[in-house]
Amino acid sequence: MRLGIDLRLHAYAPGGIATYSQRLAEHLAPLLPPDALWLLQHRKETQPLALPGARPHRLWTPPHHRLERWALGAEICPLRLDLLHSTDFIPPAWGARHFVITVHDLTFLHYPQYLTAEARRHYNAQIAWAVARADAIIAVSRATQRDLETCLAVPPERVTVTYEAADARFRPLPEAEVTAGLQRYGLARDYLLFVGTWEPRKNLPGLLEALALLHAQGERRTLVIVGRPGWLYDEIFQRVQTLGLEPWVRFIERVPPDDLVSLYNGALLLALPSFYEGFGLPALEALQCGTPVVVADRASLPEVVGEAGMRINPDDPATLAAACRQLAQDVSLRERLQRAGLEQAARFSWDRMARETLAVYRRVLDMPGA
Fold it and tell me: What's phi and psi for 99, nearest 5 deg?
């Protein structure tokens, strides 16, 4: 068995999909014979993943290039892979005997206005071909599985749902560790927290409107926005200025993972009012730290948080402000959600996800004529 996993995206956009890909590789490697797993990484990667028993291989083809289908196939063809897992959904036209893809979300079909024109052209031109090309499709939530059926007429039986998980480092911390972590960023406890890429579908302008409503009601809180700029994000900074919130909003980039654990622990709550998520990993990371979450009642987020989070209408900032205010003022509610959050987070496991993914590989390789 010769399996390849596409890790190239990490060199360009180290966000949710890159994290998923690396965690999958880390948990797959111990399940496979030595040299069965090939780690396909871009030559620009500054922190290449190295795993016992896995074979690293550097590639020239960048992700999302217009010639990616053909160039990537030519590059991997000499590896004689039995199966390639394209973790960012676009497989090459050739280069392996079988192809598995992971579809994280279909934002570009639901909300094309939230992407650049270039990104819209790229994804729209690829998705129908990709799902037809793949021998098997993995979705990271039931919501994405439903979207594949409704938007692209993909039969549900072609799609396997394998849930992501939060890294084990995300956990409740002792008070002294939280205080030390917050001091590095000049923060005091009980701020509102957002974690994610700064892009339109994350609904940061709506979160800022909710913060302004909170302040008008006398509930003055700092909002800490952790992540990195994505695209079409100028409106976010403009809205901060328009609402007069400059002293109350902190943008923090390039937060090391261990510091992020402290930032979750120090928050009053995590707010994730996204219009659309394929999974919503920050919500799960917060739950695993014992931090209450307020999420949009859309797409995958209700699936991820279950009954352990408060749900709001992302089109109405007043509902978000009301949920934040209720959590700020109701200690018993916060404590109940903290307990429920830890229980909900325990239902997710990277090891389970890797084993379920490996079962997909084996099913494909066992197909008649494989």
Answer: -135, 130
